Amino acid sequence: MARAVFEWVDGAGGFLRTTSWNNGSGALLTAYEIAASLLSNAGLQFVTSATPDIAVSTANPGHTWWLTTDTAVFNFTTVAGTTVQVTIPGPDQSIFLPDGLTIDTGNLLVIAFAAAAGLSLTDSAGNAVSFLASGVKSSRRTEQNAPPS
After folding, report:
1. What pLDDT is stored for residue 129 in this prediction?
2. 3-class SS at 20?
3. Sorting pLDDT into bands at 50, 70 and 90, what band is 56?
4. CA distance 36 to 56
5. What's the predicted TM-score (pTM) here?
6. C-alpha torsion angle, residues 114, 119, 125, 130 (rounded to 10)
7. What is the largest CA-CA distance in the chain?
8. Which residues fall within 8 angstroms of residue 132, CB to CB, at 6 or more apart?
9. How would DSSP label each residue in 92-125?
10. Local confidence band at 7 (pLDDT 50, 70, 90 cut-offs)
């Protein structure tokens, strides 16, 4: 088991560092990196799990929710029944249902991401992620938390 650190950067120079436990397989972690980067408009610059990995994507500022202050939060359940939460910054708007807040678990990119997570991610005790339970859009920007006028 290993701890992976993901370094995300957006087109405005903002950054977000996320971490996840994984089973230590380099090939499976690489597949997970690629699936995660396809969900995001931010660039995945570095992934460190024992040794640093190279950048797999670049920031795409031409889309809605491209800043690292906007995130998609995925809630996975493990084989032991524990919860593993994964945050992807600058989420692509296509992964959400029409309400713009709920992650569409039937979306092909989300399905591919959940499959890659199931092969790589674990909780801190080493229990493998078994399925994607839910997901929502979140934001650290206060102007998005204001009620519509």
Report:
1. 93
2. strand
3. low
4. 10
5. 0.83
6. 50
7. 49
8. 74, 75, 76, 105, 110, 114, 117
9. -GGGB-TTSSBB-TTSHHHHHHHHHHHHHEE-TT
10. confident
- The Cα 132–Cα 114 span in angstroms is 6
- β-strands 43-49, 51-52 pairing: antiparallel
Domains of the chain, residue spans? 2-139
Let me know if 74 is exposed, middle or buried by CB neighbors in 10 A (0-12, 13-18, 19+).
buried
Q: What is the pLDDT of residues 89-133, one digit of tens each?
A: 989 999 999 999 999 999 999 999 999 999 999 999 999 999 999
For residue 40, list its beta bridge partners: 91
Check residues 4 and 119 and name the one with the higher pLDDT: 119
Q: Which amino acid is at 92?
A: D
